[in-house]
Specification:
This protein is α/β, with parallel strands linked by helices and about 240 residues long. It folds into 2 domains: about 110 residues, Lambda Exonuclease, Chain A; about 70 residues. Helices cover about 50% and strands about 20% of the residues. It has 8 helices and 6 strands, in the order E-H-H-H-H-H-E-E-E-H-E-E-H-H. Strands 1, 2, 3, 4, 5 and 6 form a 6-stranded mixed sheet that branches. A hairpin with a 5-residue loop joins strand 5 and strand 6. The longest helix has 24 residues. The termini are far apart.
Length: about 240
């Protein structure tokens, strides 16, 4: 199975993606926890309506209890620290509420395709909007900087095309932290290119996993949270430069 996050990780650093395939995941972090909680709040808004200020903290705690308790336990946040997380999510939510949500048709929409025997591609789109003749718009919310969302958006477009037998009208990433937005109109050629990249990722990961071998290591900001950092000379060098 190749997920959207695994595909993005492979493009950044194949060895890190292989590590995830072997069950090595980054330790839980406060930014990641905040982002997960914010996404659940966004989905709650889209499916159940606006959350009143007076009930916002309670809504956050309900979402934590429903799905995020293990992550919260791993972080060992004190009550005051959790209050700080909820305040950060509240700020993101206020920006989210100012977005135009016309045409909304689904939140946290799962997509899955089996393009070849034994190969499953999977992802979950934060929100889908129906733009009429313009087709479907797939939206990915970011709670931090926008970074480079194009590979992930391309993977979502591929999944949509494989599952729905049609290209989405638009794919976009929106940062609730900075207000940045990137959007693309998928093309058949672009989707075919992503399909070829996904096929290569699956092939290389399978071979390395079966043989116990290794793949290329590419250093970058993502090394900070990599579970392979202690054994990766490139990653240690990158983090030392970033911290200098």
């Amino acid at each position: 199975m190749l997920s959207a996050s695994a595909f993005v990780t492979f493009r950044r650093c194949p060895e890190q993606a292989l590590g995830r395939m072997r069950g090595l995941y980054p330790a839980e972090s406060r930014p990641a926890f905040t982002g997960n909680l914010a996404h659940r709040i966004f989905a709650r808004h889209l499916t159940a309506g606006p959350i009143p200020d007076a009930g916002f903290a309670a809504a956050c705690r309900e979402e934590i209890g429903a799905a995020l308790n293990p992550k919260l336990s791993a972080l060992r946040l004190r009550p005051r620290q959790l209050d700080g997380v909820i305040e950060e999510v509240a700020a993101l939510y206020q920006r989210f509420r100012r977005l135009g949500l016309e045409g909304f048709s689904g939140a946290e929409v799962p997509l899955e395709a089996v393009p070849a025997e034994g190969v499953t591609l999977r992802g979950k789109v934060d929100a889908v909007f129906d733009e009429g003749e313009g087709g479907a718009r797939l939206t990915d919310w970011k709670t931090g900087s926008l970074g480079d969302p194009v590979p992930q958006l391309g993977f979502y477009a591929l999944l949509w095309a494989l599952e729905r037998q049609d290209l989405p009208g638009r794919v976009e990433a929106v940062s609730l932290a900075s207000g940045e937005r990137i959007e693309e109109v998928p093309s058949r050629a672009g989707v075919q290119e992503v399909a070829a990249e996904a096929a290569e990722a699956v092939t290389r990961l399978r071979r390395a996993f079966a043989s116990g071998g290794h793949l290329d290591r590419i250093a970058g900001p993502w090394c900070r949270w990599c579970p392979l950092l202690e054994e990766c000379e490139e990653g240690r060098a990158a983090t030392a430069l970033l911290d200098a």
